[in-house]
Fold these 2 entries.
Entry 1:
Amino acid sequence: MSKKSKLLGNIGNFAVFAGPSVITFTCVLLVPLIYGVYLTFTNYSPIRITYDFVGFSNFKSVFTDKEFWQQFVKTLGYVFYSTVFCNLLAFLLAYLLTGNIKARDFLRAGFFTPNLIGGIVLGYIWKFIFANVVTKLGDILGYQPLMTSFLTHPDRAIVAMIIVTVWQYAGYLMIIYIAGFVGIPQDVQEASEIDGATGLRKLYSITIPLMVPSFIICFFIMISRGFMTYDLNLALTNGQPYGSTRLAAMHIYQKAFQANEYGIGQAEAIIFFITVAVAAVSQVLLTKRFEVEA
Amino acid sequence: MKNKISFVKVIRYVLIYFLLILFMMPFYLMVINSFKTTQQFVSNPFSLPALNKVGFDNYISAFKKMSFLKAIGNSATITLISIILILLTSSMAAYFLVRHKWKINKVIFAVMVASMIVPFQAIMIPLVSIYGRLNLMNSKWVLIFMYIGFGQGFAVFIFHGFIKNIPLEMEESALIDGCSKVQSFFQIVFPLLKPVLVTVLILDVLWIWNDYLLPSLVLLSPAERTLPLSTYSFFNTYSVDYAPLMAGIVLTIIPVVIVYIFSQKHIIHGVVQGAIK
């Protein structure tokens, strides 16, 4: 075969095998990502006919936007507490559900159920729970703090968001932790038992250090999903009361599609992207330092 | 000693079932309250529904107002077509990227893997801006096209990892026997991919079936609405009358639960495989 026809054949094969993948990926991900960077330097808006270059003024207005930063900090808090509590609960569930236990598959499937349902539906379910069920429970118990809905109080509405997020993802992380528990070599466990390690001591000195890879995955999942939370936010609180639960993702959405400020919205989105990447990657690097070999 | 062990065991079971009941409580409350009137629900959300009072009235009303059949049809079409095409395009691409160690292939693979960390919010505005100006919005085909593109990163990554470990010999002998590259892929490699196909399939079904934000940006007319979109508009339009809303929620959950009951093992296995890769 000549060199030329081989090259043509290669290009043909590339087009058949990788073509559709590369083209769709480029059209919906790469091009918008690059065009998005360009947008941040313009004052483009769908309601105006023309637009101009504005240099860094979009970034300047984002950096001086107090409301954005308040919601940004709120988002960091939301992600932090969701990650911590969800992982604690998931680890506990996995711990309880590993080993010899009856109806294990049924139980695991039960805890996993919320993950099958989208954020919109979950948000509406919990809206009723907080508005009607929890308040009723407060009435029955005569317990004052429960009598008014969590969702009407600026400080407690974000707690409601965290509760639902923990509930939603605990089963998902549990599954990953169970896989981690199962992956701990049997001989290491037996050796530690012979050395007299039992219960908490074994958990602390053997199990947890050997499960660092599972922790990395679970933290990563929670951090990235936490930042991107939008559906749940929209259905449960819609940013209310008084914008106290408007998380960064929702802020960006509203800036772009309600205020029609594409340039500023995209500048926020880029800052948001960098934050997510930095948080996710530094978590991995930080947690990796605790990794040990079995 | 024996007593102590069984005591620990009892505590463990009590704790597990207590947590499970707590976890399931929201679903239970939805179901019992979907058979009540709004007044009955507000006055006592914990009571069991009275027999023969409301029956399936709430369900009939929710079914009609959500255009349930239309919405579930749209959701099913979009999910099914997107996923078939994601599986096909990404497995073929991954195969090619593994088998030809060209520089450009390495770059493509690295870019696709790196793209997995990009949050949707970072692309959403330019996406709407570009496709809006090209007048490509409000079509389920464009939405499917987008899902195929967004699905590549993860799927190519998973397939790539799997195909790397498939030995070359069988394909080589097939090629010598006169099979084309496409034939040898579909007859030899593709069947071997079954376990990873299931993993990608499950994670993508959960993603696309439940996705709200992307379809809400692309599908503008009510006739095109998917299930999450019609749930959202149903709630926004009829927010005062609680009882049918809860029936609506139960309706949207039922198909998922039915599928889950039959494929729970695969789903949980798929999630683990997808996460630890």
Note: The mean pLDDT of chain A is 87.
Entry 2:
Amino acid sequence: MSERSASSTPSWFRDADYEFAAVQIERLRPESPWRKARERLGRRASVRWSLRFLVFLALLSFLAPLLPLPSPAAITVAAEPAPPVAPWSAFGDHKFVAEYWELNPLDRALVSLRTSLFGKWRTGPWLGTDALGRDVLARVVWGSRTSLLVALCAALTSLVVGVTWGALAGLVGGRLDNLLMRIVDVLFAVPTIFIVIFTLSFLDAPKGAVGEAPLLSREQVFFLVVGAVSWLSMARVVRGQVLELKRSAFVEAARIAGASTPWILRVHVLPNVLGLVIVNLTLTLPSVILYEAFLSFLGLGVEPPKVSWGLLAAEGAEALNPLESYVWLIAAPAVVMALTLFALQTLGDGLRDAFGVEERSER
Amino acid sequence: MMAHAPAVWIRRTLAALLVALVVGAVLASALGTRRERADFVFTGGGEVRSLDPHAATGIPEGRVIRALFEGLVVRDPQTLKPAPGCAETWEVSPDGRTYTFHLRPDARWSNGDPVTATDFVWSWTRLLEPRTAAEYAAQLWCVEGAREFATGGDGAHDPTPLGLRALDERTFEVRLAEVQPRFLDVLCFYAFVPLHRASIEALQARHPTSWGTLWTRPEHLVSNGAYYLAERRIHERIRLAKSPHYWEADGVAMRTVDVLALESWSSALNLYLTGEIDWVDGAIPSNLVGRLKEREDFRATPYLGVYFYRVNTTRPPLDDVRVRQALSRTVRRAEITNKVLKAGQAPNHSFTPWGRIGAYTAPAMAPADAAAAASLLAAAGFATPASKGVGKPFPKLELHFNSSETHRALAEVVAHHWKQALGIDAKLRNQEWKAFLSAQSSLDYDLSRSSWIGDYADPGNFLEIWTSDSPNNRTGWKNARYDELIARARGTLVEAQRNALYREAEQILLNELPCIPIYSYVSQNLVNPRLGGFDDNALNEPSLARLYWRDGVELDAARKADKRGKKRALAPGPSNGLRSPRVDALLFEASGGAQGRPLNEDER
Amino acid sequence: MLRFLVRRAAWFALTTWVVITLAFFLLRAAPGGPFSSERKLHPSVEAALREQYHLDWPLWKQYLHTLGPLNLDGRGWLGDGADPFGGVLAGDFGPSMQHRDVSVNDVLASSLPISITLGSLALALALVLGLSAGVASAHSPGSKLDQSVRALATGGLVLPNFVLASLLVLVFAFWIPVLPVAGFGTPRHLVLPSLALALPFAAYIARLSRAGLLETLSKDYIRTARAKGASRARILWKHALRGALAPVVSYLGPAAAGVLTGSLVIERIFAIPGAGTHFIASALNRDYTLAMGVTVVYAVLVFGFNTLVDVAYTLLDPRLDLEQEA
């Protein structure tokens, strides 16, 4: 990173003409952060594998209705959860029943495609079943949708609200900066869990008659709330970076050289901020996924029969006691969750190194 | 270049701060209260709401308050019948309107004062005062003048017309305005214990505004039960110590009792398994029930509680009795109790739990029958899986419950039953407790989970909630005949006649089904097998004063007599540090090397 | 510095006010009240209770009463010995509505020290573990040590803390029975909960300090020191750590807030009578006064800690100017 002390106008610049200045600007301006990043990123195997894993997971989660899995909500009440069965001893059977919650049209189409492709065939209980006879593998795959969606939602708000907020504060500076950042501070001090509990109870609006749908589903409320609280750190980080860039030598030089503000923004500020934004995102996503688990643990998670990793983990955590040994109930969600978060972190690390971003916290 | 001095300074400060933090934390915790383990330790869930018998209403509160205070009559822990408590004897006038209680001459407060009839008059007057805002005051409204006194304007009332009189130091007379056949059963409840007037009034004089939060502190609370309050740490533990002035102090074995406040059942289980707790009572996660049932220390006893779904009878199509019948007749209750709950709960075919209470036998509702249910639904004009498109599609129902794993699992299973048998889609709606209650009160639900626990063994306790004016009805269901039957039963002294009326009323309820009963509760206790005097009863109210530690001989005999067979795993022995006055020596002789081991070998 | 602190104090007042107001109106707007229960109260009883806790007052009056610093109870001004001051601004949160015989101040007085003990121990543990891991792994980047430390550090960040805590109990209280399973009272009782609470933060600090160290190690003055013949360990501890501390210190603010939130779960699993338990319970029970109490305390702690961190940060890096930051 450039030295912060370079914020004052360099003395050699005073008498120089524009042509000379342009050459100097080129020399001061770092090479394109994108190209450099791509090169550095490709070199690390761990990063490549993480990326592959995440893409695979995203595909799996998106295509969940298409896969020949048992339905995640189909109940066959049994007295005990059944342990995992190796695929080679019970590869599958023809007992598929389409039992889902209310799906959106796309998922419905995928489900009907699945039925025409695989018929009634479904995979065996490779990861065991839970106490209501539901397939753990299917639940983990379907559960990934909620967890990834929450993460995605948080990512979007971070990007849209957080980046705009931080950039605005950093660019305009002065009073507005002060105001915006203090608002963030105040919001930081408000306990989010409190907000979550109450928003969930208001927006779960009463309805008048049988069969009427409420205004917002619990899941939507949940996404809103998680989004609403996840942009704060992004705003701080972006503002810090923008301030630093504003003071940096090459922006200063460009400004003196007469470059327009939009041009400076596009060429100098944006690319340098983007790297940091992406890095920060890969660090936000794990914390949001863990937050979902935390809420599920408190009983504030998604509405059943929908599933999420957090819900599975919270349910399974009961298995972690000295009496019982339904380990698969906790192992399955915990392992995928750990792998995903691990991949996200590795990717974040890789990106950070690639963009040469200092690891900084959300101050 | 950075300035060097502040950096060194900050690093040193930081290091010093770190050390200070750690040392401080360790010291703080060490200075905290390392106390001897109590003779007996148990938990019944979270922190008690209050130790004021007039403000408390819950079950965990009851356990502590009944150990601290003793009312006129107490429930016999085996039969649940009223037995002499603070009152040695009593007489009832032939018309059932006047009760005269004779207090024990040796009934004493924990400070040595005798318990007098005036104490009762004063306490019950406090209970009835509107300012006290006691939930159970309404149970005493059958006393002369009580209703007017309790609901009259503030300040304008005069306690003399109340039918409560101290005839002398030890004779307490209660006159009733209306007949209450179960008056003695009512009095067993902990709201009707005496309070120590002198100490409370002294406190009121000294702290006119804050006495309400002060008088139940250990340094101020004077009680008349087997125990007195030795220590209270909010959200941690309540320590009870044996009161030397209790009239039956010789029969009380446990010198100290700890009541732990534990929010999570799994931490209670962990503490139990390491011998830190001797009795855990709680709703056990159903995944664990299978393993626990194999253990000798797991005790499931029928409990006076019913689990049911309320039906909002004001919303079409649920206002149609045929729809309600159809829904009820497609719930496979036995599957729920045998495969989901598994602890010994029973499918409920009446609203009264277990189908009977004492001499009362409940009528049964129409049996589960998917085909009959489908034809009922078709008769109501709806399409069913068998009707091949005839009839309107049934709207999407909403099954409303409060956030909890068991309720969720049950709702999922019931929704599955309806889907399978009737093709009805039921969406699940889960709300946190208070929002849930608010929605239920304002009839903002289709079907809503509920439960009802009896205060004492009487069908009226359960059936009275369905009268039109009952605040606990919450379904919009009204039936004039039902109201009349219940009102008549209330005033009938002869038990057989009363039960006949209740039976007729319950039959109406089961035909109309403003509620769909699901199952009857069991209490689920993990009890150290060495514990003696622990009586299983339908209210899960063992008497703390009767508990003792059994010696090896008695334990072996009990194990042999246990009908549940040999395969039950033996429970852990009492942990180290257990100091029980009576069996201390016996324990060491009997359990030998088992001391303090968390689990037996076969459980590892 | 003084000006900075004064400004911060002004913001602090504003934040507290916002939190109080927000909490007050959120609580009142949420469905259900402190006295709703499965067994519905008789209307006369409920009315008496509402009167006792002033819930029968108009909302604005309740708000002013809650906010303080004047006790609007009326009684206080009639010379009956009641305190004329009350409300949050007077440091009096009133009686708890759920636990009817204790005041919120009692609850906080008994639970807050426990939470702070646990929280500061966890933070200290996170710093010690995190920094040592960071230094160890920066000592020889790319080595086996580095790789294993980094894998471990990531491991602390990938599991929900309730799973982590349950695992710790299972391993250290049952399989290797060396520590108590739950409870509070001796230093031994603190080991598992503070560890479970600290691990995720230790992991993050390890990553931060490693990155910071590697960055600082490439600076000129380190090269100078190395040229003078200082050993690598000496350079790491003596010279580089100072520069690497800045991001760690600035992380302590969010970490403190995170520790507070994490303690909600940890206190429940380990049955620790801290304030975290009340946090969720009071909101769910609509215990207006207790919920207000814990929320205000939370906000004050987070804000205070963040200010402290800002001060420490400037002391570490004199180039930053507090005047500017404020």
Note: DSSP finds twelve helices and no strands in chain C.
